[in-house]
Every structure is written in structure tokens, then in C-alpha cells.
Amino acid sequence: MEDVWSVVLRVGAAWMSLVFALIVLPSALGVSLGISEAYLWVLMKTLEWATIRIEKGVRKPQPQIKTSAANGIIERDETPMEKEIVHPHRVDFEFSDIFYFCRKGFEAIVEDEVTQRFSSEELVSWNLLTRTNVNFHYISLRLTIVWVIGVIVRYCFLLPLRITLAAIGITSMIVGTTIVGQLPNSSVKNYLSEVVHLTCSRILVRALSGTIHYHNKENKPQKGGICVANHTSPIDAIILTNDGCYAMVGQVHGGLMGIIQRATVKACPHVWFERSEVKDRHLVTKRLREHVADKNKLPILIFPEGTCINNTSVMMFKKGSFEIGGTIYPVAIKYDPKFGDAFWNSSKYNIVSYLLRIMTSWAIVCNVWYMPPMVRQEDEDAVQFANRVRSAIAHQGGLTELPWDGGLKRAKVKDTFKEEQQKNFSKMLVRNGSIG
Amino acid sequence: LPCAQDARTPPSPLSFPPPVTSEQIEHLHRRFKQLSQDQLTIRKENFDSIPDLEFNPIRGKIVHAFFDKRNLRQESDGLADEINFEDFLTIMSYFRPIEMNMDEEQLDRFRKEKLKFLFHMYDSDHDGKITLQEYRNVVEELLSGNPHLEKESARSIADGAMMEAASICVGQMGPDQVYEGITFEDFLKMWQGIDIETKMHVRFLNVDTIAHCY
Fold first, then answer.
1. Using one digit for the tens of pLDDT, what is the confidence trace for A145-173?
2. Contact yes or no for A422 and B139 at CB 8 A
3. What is the pLDDT of residues A382-400, one digit of tens each?
4. A167-174 contact pairs (CB < 8 A, 24+)
5. How many domains does chain B have?
6. Which residues in chain B are contacts of A426 at CB distance < 8 A?
7. Which residues of A touch B205 (CB under 8 A)?
8. What is the CATH number of the domain that holds B141?
9. Which of A24, A172, B19, B28 is the least buried, fewest Cβ under 10 Å from its Cβ?
């Protein structure tokens, strides 16, 4: 009995020291040992091989032109209503006028632009994860074996490693920030707080096997500014804090999240709102304005979409963030869906199952583009400014833009939108016809 | 190729109209599951979750068409409460585009089916005739979003169009002749020579699920 315990303890100790030496220490120092890169290279080669096998395995001939599944499955006829509803006989209304609306209705039923943004992006080729095996059929024994090996690697090796790292990361964040928080306010405290935040972020990113490519680092958000990014998942914040320190904005939660929030706010001036305060927009704007006015404070991080979108498009930005004033530093984040799906479908998965899914994916690979700062022009109002920033982010990240509100995930379309089409059609009739 | 899906695989393609490909059926099945929220049937309320559809002035009629038993090729009349995936496919099949390899007879049947679908949309009381009142209803619905257009104007537009239809079907009417309504045969007559097949279809893109190497 004793022997078993001592063996277990020794293995445990060896494991922890390996983890510490290979992962935690480099995170603290900000260096990379190249393990992630090697892992990703092996993964890429395997996935390429798998793709070739799948292509060989399919017997029917493939046409050379492929279309991206993210852009829809039906051919939309974009002829505007005016062109299509033509009345050659000077009659005011014909039976066939109903065709246009009928067809549009059917197209919407088969597929609508908005709902598909709230489900995960479809992959064009299988990435050997069971969860993405929707379209793909059984191909060959070799592929299945590789898939089984993949399952074993992911669940038995990667998952425990990642959970360990996540635990270390979160604990050190709480402990570190609490310690730093005891110090009196000074530049030393700020420096130490930055070190703690950065180290813990790096550990957490490694906990997800994250590989992040930062572009245009010269545009990194400065103090006193507001950093604005598109939102795909809760880990967006970790992705960004991996490279710099920000003041987070959010609602106070209970549980583990609440503990983290309370600890970190002692070390660094994050802006946490009580639930009751969130409803009061003026209070929120006022607090944020005060924060931004102080040029020594870290830049605020805000996600103006308000909800998680599936990373193929950018939805409407809420104008609140753009009314605060100050310089906006837009950031575009684009995840590579091949290695793991980072999108959090909050109506389908709760946070724990989401984290488990992330931790059993291959890796999280993403690109982050820092963009040149923008300010509101004199003749722009907040909404126009928000749209301008949104276009820039969508353009940089290669995402499409949708004018819809992310809140449509849960709510219905406003009535004002509905009547638009009817107004247009009747305007047309009145113009053509002889109604006074 | 055997399918790696679960037991709720969609049923085999329909014999009439011309069969849809299995990939399209899979797409539609996924869409069905999305709309039904993973239930086996869809109800009218499920269509409320489509933002694009809210725009459409004849939204009510389109949704109605999905539950209309005449469109579902069921013997009885009236409205179904809920439809399963097979019914969904049946309604979708009215919007199939024309295939290259159809012969005269098939084309004619195809056209008739589409026109019948349209007829049912107008004929809301299921009596086999489009009366003046039913026609007025459709026009009013289409024009309902415009607050500046009075009900009277909508009515006169409908009346004018109905007279036009009557003149095609019945010829010149006497002053005391009452026009009951447009029957399906008259409806077909109105559409003779007019191309509807290209207006009333939804074409699927050829999306292949296996693709290039990275």
C-alpha cells in the first residue's frame, strides 16, 4: 500500500515539475520553447493526410469549383423587387406579383442569414473530431484508426494536462493579484500587477493549446483608450490579455468567476458593475468616461456586439461603447475552425461543457489584428461611428457584416423592420397605377 | 456510401416531383431540426424564429401554405396542426427548379402543381374558387404596411384586377351577371403562355462537403 502511494506521489511530483519547467516558467518569462509550434506542425500534417484520404475515398467525380459552406446553400436571386414586378399592361396589380414575395419567403425558410450565425461554422473538410462529423461518411480503416488515436491523445493526455494548467493559472491569478493588491498604490504595484496578469494569461492560453498570431503590434491599444473587438467566446479576453494588459468591463458574477473578479480588481482597476448598475446606462457611461479620462489607466476592453457570434460575421455594434468618447482601438479576432471550434453557443451549451469542448479540441489557433486608432468625427453620430468601426473590423478579419442585432439570438425582429417591404411594394403600385 | 448519421436520417427521395439529391435532403433536414428545435414536427409558432421572414408581407399566407392539407396531398381538408419532415419536403418540392431532362408531360404536370400551390394560397376558404373577397384579402395584406394607402384604394386595385381576370375567363359579362369566382381551370387559362417555372423556384448551390487540401 505504502509503495503504491509513494510511486503515485513520485510520478505526480515528476509530472508537476515537468509542467512547471516546460510551461509555467516560460510563461512567466515570456519565452516560448517551441513545443506548441511542433505540436501544431504534426497536427497540420495529419489533417492534410486525412483530407487526402477522404478525397480519395469518395468515388463520385468531384467538380473543380467548390463554394464555401458559410455563405449559404441556396442560390439567391438578388433581383430587386422593382425589376421583377413589372406591369406591362398598365394594370395596377397582377396575380403574379405574389410570386416575388412567395419566393423570398421560401428562401428565408430554407435558410436565413441570421440564424446560421448562431450555430457553429461548417467545416469544408473533416478535422478528425467527432463533433464535426456531420456530413462525413465512413471512409477507411486507416482513417478510423487515426481518429481513435486522436481521441486517446485528446482525452487521456491533453485533457488532464490542460485541466492542470487551467487550475494552476486560475489559482496563481487569484493568489498573485491578492498579494499584489495588498501593496500601496505605486508604479511598482502596477508593474507587478501587469506581470501577474500576463503570466496567468499565458498559462491559461497554453492550457487551451492556443497559438495566437498578433499582427500590427505597433497599433496596440494605449492607455486611456478603448479597445473594441468582435466577440466569439469568453476566451476572447484571455486571447487579448495574453499580449497586453487591459481593464476589463463586465458584470459581477457569483462563484469562481466572482472570486477572480474580486481578487483582480484589487491589483488593477477593472470595471465591474453590480447587476443593478448594469441597467442604468448613464451610470455605466459615466463610470467608463471617468476611467478613460485618466490617462494613466489601462485601456478598457469592450465587446460591443453584446453576445457571442460564430466568427463568420460581425453583427450590429451597440452604440453605448461609442458614446464614451476617447480613442477607439479596433481589434479583429479570427479563429481557425480547423483545429477547434471556439464559438460558444450559449443556448446549447453551458459554460462548463463549453470549456470541456474547448479543452478536448486539437488547439485554438487564431489571428489577432491590431488596427489603427479611430476617433469619432464631428459630423458622425454614435451609430454611424459604430458602423464605421464595425466595417473596419469585418474587413480586416475577413468576416461578413450583418446589420442585424445580436440580440436576435433570443428576441424577435422589431415591428419597424417588418413594415419596410410592405411600404415599398405599395409605393411601387401607387407610382405605377392611377390611384390618386 | 453508408451514412454515419443517427437513426433519425431523413426518408428517401420522393418519386414526384423529380427527386432531390441526398445532400439537399440532408441540408433541409438540418434546417428542419433547427426550426423544430430538435422535435419531430414543426408547428406554426416555429416559423416565428426566422427574422428574414418577418419582412415578408404575405408571411401569414406562406406559413399557412405549409399546413394546408391540400398542399400536403392529404385526402382531408383544412389545416394540419403540425407537420413532420416528409411533409416539409413535400411543400419544398413545389419550389423545385426545372430539370434539363424533363419531357413535355412532366413539365406540364410540374407547372400545374406550382399553379395549384399558388391557387391554394389565394383560395383561403378552400372552396375551390377565388372570390373577390379572397382576392381583396391578398392585396390588402400585400399593401398593409403602407399607412398612407387607404383601404379603399387597396379595394379598388383588387376590384380592377378581378375584372381583368374575369374578362379573360368569362369574356364580356352582362350587367346583371355575377362573377362567382375564379376556378382552377380559369386560373390555368390565365397563365397560359406565361412562364412561371423560372419565377417560382429555389435553386440549391452545388456545395460539396469534401474539398481541397489546405
1. 877 888 888 888 888 888 888 888 888 88
2. no
3. 888 888 888 899 888 888 7
4. A168/A19, A168/A24, A168/A203, A169/A200, A169/A201, A169/A203, A169/A204, A169/A207, A170/A200, A170/A204, A170/A256, A170/A260, A172/A196, A172/A199, A172/A200, A172/A203, A173/A197, A173/A200, A173/A260, A173/A263, A173/A264, A174/A259, A174/A260, A174/A263
5. 1
6. 142-143, 145-146, 149
7. 67, 72-75
8. 1.10.238.10
9. B19
